Amino acid sequence: MIDAIAHKFQTGTQWVRLPEKYGNWRGVYNRLRMWAADGTWERVFTGLVAQADAEEDLGWAVSVDSTIVRAHQHAAGAREKGPRPANRPTTPSAAPAAD
């Protein structure tokens, strides 16, 4: 199960494209969601950090690969400077329309 979840996040593939050797993708997805909701992942991470700290083998390195970091679809074309100017109110003309 953990290999299936790791494969999904390492490759960035869609859930439905998960290789058959990992079983039904819905089962993997549901297990990931359950473990996230019940705190399993938090406990695993906390335990691994505690173990590494006890062995004085704790070093942090953070790396972000921009090829997999995506902006939300609504972020494209966003204004860079301040809010949009307000539309000028339209007022009807007092004169009748010309034919």
From TrEMBL:
Pfam families to which the protein is assigned, alphabetical: DUF4096
Name of the protein: Putative transposase of IS4/5 family
InterPro entries in the cross-refs: IS402-like_dom, Transposase_6_like
All copies of domain Insertion element IS402-like, residue ranges: 1-45
Superkingdom classification of source: Bacteria
Residues covered by region (Disordered): 72-99
